[in-house]
Amino acid sequence: MEDMESALRERVRDVLREHPGSQRAFAEQIGLDATKLSKSLAGTRRFTPAELTRIAETGNVTVNWLINGSDEAETVAAAPQRSAVLARTRDAQEAGRHQQILDAAWHLIAERGYHAVRISDVAKACGISAATIHYHFPGRDDLLTEALRHSVRQAFDRQVAELHSIEDAHERLLRLVELQLPKPGLLRLEWSIWLQVWNESARNPKMGVLHSDSYTRWHDTIARTIREGQQQGVFVTDTDPEDLTVPLTALIDGLGIQVLTDRPGRSVERMRQVLHDHVNRAIVRH
Fold this sequence. Notes:
This protein is mostly helical. Helices cover 70% and strands 0% of the residues. The chain is globular and about 55 Å long. Helix 4 (49-59) packs antiparallel against helix 9 (140-163). Keywords: DNA-binding, Repressor, Transcription, Transcription regulation. Residues 95-155 form the HTH tetR-type domain. InterPro entries: BetI_C, Cro/C1-type_HTH, Homeodomain-like_sf, HTH-type_TetR-like_transc_reg, HTH_TetR, Lambda_DNA-bd_dom_sf, Tet_transcr_reg_TetR-rel_C_sf.
């Protein structure tokens, strides 16, 4: 574990070396006290999952690379399929502008809807010209599709950051459940994006591939957690992990839609309780 932490710190240093400006400026950009960043680099404190996610986003890398040394490492969370991988540039200035545009587009899609967002809306949100948007994204569909990939990457990075240090599969599965609750803020916005991806996938083959590959990653992450729990002896072993994964993911999807659409009697708290009850009844070994 210490070797992994040491390698992680060295990769964060690599990010700092590539990023323009001072270490203090980088710390300020990711919302981290400079002293805490120094302590984390020295090994006297650990980076939190949220900090790793912000470092990856600001440094134009993935959390998977920071922790495991590869964008495609198969660890606690299944690596995203190729169609869901966000194209990245190594030029720090261009990467920063690229990221700013995607962030703005992502939020606008989540708040207004996929078809209601125009290039001019994104340009206004970023304080730049439409021509600058087109420099990075030739067409509106290119921008919107990349914004959806951006959402997939955010979710994947957060999962890797949150789960990599949790060895107990039962605890990890419950954390995965928690990461799928449409709580106000980031997670609710992500659910809004997913609802729109589902809708677009029904009529747009290209979007269908993105959805299928992204959902496969999520499904495989649940399945490998259940499989590891069976090996640890904390989950039932008389049922194939796939047969346990399908009803759990379907339950998460259905309850999430009900919460997001404000069905009476459905809340984040109720969704959490139902999912915990299901895990305890159908998956945990007693």
